[in-house]
Specification:
Order of helices and strands: EHHEEEHEH
Helix content: 25-40%
CATH topology: Aminopeptidase
Largest sheet: 5 strands, mixed
Distance between the termini: 55 Å
CATH superfamily: Gcn5-related N-acetyltransferase (GNAT)
Amino acid sequence: MEIIYQVENNLSVTEFRDVLMRSTLGERRPIDDNDRLEKMCKNADIMLTARFEGKLVGVARSLSDYAYATYLSDLGVDVEFQHLGIGKRLIAETKKLVPEGKLILLAAPTARAYYPKIGMTQFEYSFYIDNLDELKNVKY
């Protein structure tokens, strides 16, 4: 089975949504909000894809400064193509594009055990905020 890996920074929103839905990422991404998906595609610095016979079967969407940090914000593989090394290869291809920077991602709950198995280091000091009103004692 030959999987083709390539940078596709002009990936269509339709294909992006489709692979999100065929992976487990669709459960945690705004797949019903076309405007947000369009921004996610348009503003990604690196959009790596995996295709089998032309069909999109995997995607790695990243934001990067190309020097210090690359945030791999979406790593999705079609459930029918999982356990074939596609996710690991998408991570490797992303890292090759920014060899001197750290590659950072937040694991989905069901994928937490996967990343240490492939050699990634778990970091316990990650934080996030969803809404501005959750930030305490800020004057604006």
